[in-house]
Amino acid sequence: DNLYTRFGALVPGVIAAWICYGYQEKVLHFFENRKLLSNGILVVAFGYILLQFTIPLQDPSFHPGPLWQIVFNTCARNFFAICITYIMVSSLYGRWLCGIVRWVFSWWIWYPMSQLAYSFYLLHIGFIALLMWPVLILVSLFVPPSMEPYTLSVFVTTFFVVIFGGAFCSVLYTFIERPFMNMRDLPVFRHAPKAVTPHALGGAVEEEA
User: Fold this and answer.
1) What whole-number distance in Å separates Cα of residue 97 and Cα of residue 90?
2) pTM of the model
3) Nearest partner of 8 among 104, 92, 85, 102, judged by Cα
4) Measured between alpha carbons, how far is 45 from 6 in angstroms, rounded to an integer?
5) Can you tell me the distance from the alpha carbon of 81 to that of 13, in angstroms, rounded to the nearest whole number?
6) Number of neighbours of residue 83 by Cβ within 10 angstroms
7) Half-sphere exposure of residue 53, counting CA atoms within 13 Å on the CB side?
8) Which of 43, 110, 131, 140 is deepest in the core (most CB within 10 A)?
């Protein structure tokens, strides 16, 4: 479980990069000559992700059988990662629906969100702990029990966590994370030895010969 919770977003990205780097010609051939199949797999991938999100795992009345739990716990995360990986690859090389996915993922709003995502991931529990009980108390004062104040407080807490957490993480990124990342341009880091690639190594061997 730790592999998916700690590196859940990293693993599909690494696999997608490995596929694109090592099998680029085959990937291009597949998406150019199997447009219907490639778009069909894309629909299946999105459908599985939506289906997995609709499973009421947190519902106390949801009691699946032991066999279902074994299969789900064994396969769900792996299938989810496979679907994410395919969506990433198809957004780079595919056409038709894949092109629409590429267009959506190319929106400028994703870049600033991605810059704040990791800081927000680290700090969001603290914001939830600070805001959850005050919001629940205030909502309970003004909302009758028939309107389920606890459920409403969850949505209100989420809203304020996104607002305050995003603002705080923006400050952290601007004054702490970004300056540290800019340090890689300092002269002391410019003279690091270059990585030796297989092509460079092969060229050196040929020169010696």
Assistant:
1) 9
2) 0.64
3) 85
4) 22
5) 9
6) 20
7) 6
8) 131
**Category of 96 on φ-ψ map: left (φ > 0), alpha (ψ -120 to 50) or beta:** left
Tens of pLDDT, residues 50-95: 988 888 776 677 778 888 888 888 888 888 889 999 999 998 888 8
- CA-based torsion, 6, 8, 12, 13: positive or negative: negative
* Token pair of 108 as six digits: 């400028």
* Cα–Cα distance for residue pair 88/27, rounded to 1 Å: 12
In 10 A of CB 180, how many CB atoms? Answer: 8
Query: How many Å apart are CA 149 and CA 134, to the nearest integer?
Result: 13
Q: Cα separation of 157 and 155, whole Å? A: 5
Structure tokens at 199: 């092509």
Alpha helices in the chain (DSSP H): 2-7, 10-22, 24-33, 35-54, 66-93, 97-105, 110-142, 149-172, 178-182, 187-190, 198-208
Crossing angle between the packed helical segments 97-105 and 66-93, to the nearest 10 degrees = 80
pLDDT in tens, 166-207: 899 999 888 988 888 888 788 877 665 554 444 444 444 444
Helix (H, G, I), strand (E, B) or coil at 2: helix
Distance in angstroms (rounded) separating the CA atoms of residues 82 and 102:
18
Q: How confident is the model at residue 45 (pLDDT cuts 50, 70, 90)?
A: very high
Interacting residues of 174 by C-beta distance below 8 A, sequence separation 6+: none
Q: How many other β-carbons are positioned within 10 Å of the β-carbon of residue 42?
A: 22
